[in-house]
Amino acid sequence: MEDGFSSYSSLYDTSSLLQFCNDDSASAASSMEVTDRIASLEQRVQMQEDDIQLLKSALADVVRRLNITEEQQAVLNRKGPTKDH
């Protein structure tokens, strides 16, 4: 039975990957790309955290309004029917 890696060697050319990993200039460029990517992802996470806070605030407002409506409905139900109904 073949090991797991030898079956992949025919599918993927790893020589260019090894050359890329061993090239210092590519490594420096890659480092900058990684740094830029991390900064971009951190900015995205911050924006998503802001969106989550807005959604939490909106949800809290909806729940508050729903509670008020339910309380008003309960008060009206306790009073009984009005002359109009």
UniProtKB/TrEMBL annotation:
List UniProt keywords, sorted A-Z: Coiled coil
- Report which residue ranges the record marks as coiled coil: 31-72
Q: What is this protein called?
A: EML1 isoform 19
* Phylogenetic lineage: Eukaryota, Metazoa, Chordata, Craniata, Vertebrata
